[in-house]
Design a protein that fits this description.
- It is built from 9 helices and 15 strands.
- It is globular.
- Strand 8, helix 4 and strand 9 form a beta-alpha-beta unit.
- The chain has 302 residues and is an alpha/beta fold.
- Strands 3, 5, 6, 7, 14 and 15 form a 6-stranded mixed β-sheet that branches. A 6-stranded parallel β-sheet has the order 10-9-8-11-12-13, with helices on both faces. Strands 2-1-4 form a 3-stranded antiparallel β-sheet, with no helix packed on it.
- Helix 3 packs across helix 4.
Length: 302
């Protein structure tokens, strides 16, 4: 099978499309014929060799956590899923023609494989950091770097819970943020005052790692009311860096519920082939995403 792999840490150029042995599921796992894989910042962070305790790896290594596809092997002890089912979920080395998943759910009706591939890690992360920052119904949450996949999920989940959301993003994405129910403003010079004019902030999330931790603490008045998923230096300022995943099965179940109720939709901004994985990482690293990016392994089909 074809698989994206890297044998040393480094830039996008270390990624290569190789021929590899097909994986097979152990107990409690399933294998899918991958239709699409989600592109997440953690993918290029791991490729660069950043120290992320949740994702220790040995070289050579594959790439990717999220995928959607068709079940073609079921491991021992697995119930409730059969060969031929259309699922999305989280596993390992998902930039490949076949991948083993450790958590999965059936794809909600009306969602394509490409769309579904963009949800698993994004929704888990969004649910986790909303919980960790402790924001409640009736309060206001500031989201820095709000237009990407996690930001899109955070805005919609928070609004469904009765939380007011202020989102920062580039000028081209202001209408997008408003379409998700956020009060929107641009980042850049004067952004703190622009946020203040929108109202007091009870909690804040740093999703972009753009060096704004001090300002987020200033706006909330408490470093314990700020969470970052992108700035490894955040703990030096008393802010928690959240990098360890919670329950992916629970997150997938909540994602299915939200999608089915029409409360969560994350658009696919751009798709890539397996051979274009390096370009996907370059674009992901550059930021300014509106929604999700995915690697398409096979065209949608049954």
């Amino acid at each position: 099978m074809k698989k994206v792999s890297f044998a040393k840490f480094g830039g996008p150029d270390v990624l290569h499309l190789i021929d590899a042995e097909e994986p097979h599921p152990g107990p409690g796992r399933i294998r899918i014929a991958v239709r699409a894989a989600g592109v997440n910042p953690v993918d290029w962070r791991v490729r660069e060799g950043q120290v992320l305790g949740a994702h220790p790896i040995e070289l050579p290594a594959g790439v990717g956590l999220d995928a959607a596809g068709v079940v073609d092997e079921v491991g021992e002890g697995v119930e409730g899923v059969e060969v031929g089912d259309h699922v999305f979920g989280e596993g390992t080395d998902t930039y490949a023609e076949f991948a083993v998943l450790s958590a999965w759910a059936r794809i909600p009706q009306g969602l394509t494989f490409q769309e579904a591939a963009g949800y698993p890690s994004v929704v888990e992360t969004a649910l986790r950091i909303i919980r960790e920052v402790g924001v409640r119904s009736g309060q206001t949450l500031l989201v820095s770097g709000a237009s990407g996949g996690v930001g899109s999920a955070v805005l919609q989940i928070a609004r469904d819970r009765g939380i007011t959301v202020i989102g920062t993003a580039g000028a081209p994405n202001q209408d997008y943020l408003r379409s998700l129910g956020a009060l929107a403003t641009t980042y850049g010079e004067g952004w703190v005052e622009r946020v203040r004019r929108l109202g007091p902030v009870d909690a804040a999330l740093d999703l972009a790692g753009s060096g704004v931790i001090r300002e987020l603490v200033e706006l909330t008045g408490n470093p314990h009311k700020v969470i970052s998923i992108a700035d490894l230096g955040a703990p030096k300022l008393g802010v928690r860096f959240s990098g360890v995943a919670g329950s992916v099965p629970e997150a997938l179940a909540e994602a299915v519920d939200l999608i089915s109720r029409g409360k969560l939709h994350i658009p696919v901004e751009k798709s890539y082939t397996l051979a274009e994985a390096a370009a996907a990482h370059i674009d992901s690293h550059a930021g300014h995403t509106r929604g999700r990016r995915v690697v398409v392994v096979r065209a949608d089909r049954t």
